[in-house]
Write a structure and sequence with these properties.
This protein is of the alpha+beta class and about 160 residues long. About 30% of the residues lie in helices and about 35% in strands.
């Protein structure tokens, strides 16, 4: 019993000395943290309901790469993919955790790298063989990436 009291006392001391602050998110559907002292790190979190399916998304912008997470009806991390641009105009994608290269997340990762030109780590738990959910999630993510300015400009003119 004394051992249990010691552990609780140490835990209470640790909590009381920790600097914990309550963070209030804005009333809108999105939260962005772009601190100047974060070394180029920008975190964006948002949730949307599309066709009665709840999508939870997080984008972490690091120097020269993006980490994106798509949660479908839950907050599970799901399969984890890494994708990188390769020459000429191709993308290499590999599965890091769970899944294989033909799963839903690998296609999204490939297309996002083509749109951004950046290395990408994508975690996604969209059910397999759900092309409409995949399309909805990818559309939400691409719209947010465009709004944040993470996509490449479209080449629409002749360069001189």
């Amino acid at each position: 019993m004394a051992r249990s009291d010691l552990d609780l006392g140490a835990l209470n001391d640790a909590f009381s000395s920790a600097q914990i602050s309550k963070h209030e998110e804005p009333t809108g559907p999105s939260y962005t943290n772009d601190d100047g002292d974060a070394g180029g790190l920008q975190v964006t979190c948002f949730s949307e309901v599309v066709n009665e399916t709840a999508f939870h998304l997080q984008i972490i912008r690091l120097p020269k790469q993006i980490y994106a997470w798509i949660g479908c009806n839950s907050a599970k991390i799901g399969h984890l993919y890494a994708a990188a641009p390769m020459r000429p105009n191709t993308v290499g994608v590999t599965s890091i955790l769970g899944g294989t290269s033909d799963n839903t997340g690998s296609g999204i990762a490939r297309r996002l790298v083509l749109k951004t030109g950046l290395n990408l780590i994508l975690a996604c738990n969209i059910p397999k063989n759900s092309p409409m959910l995949e399309a909805d999630a990818e559309k939400l993510l691409v719209q947010k990436l465009i709004n944040l300015g993470y996509t490449r400009p479209r080449s629409g003119g002749v360069s001189s």
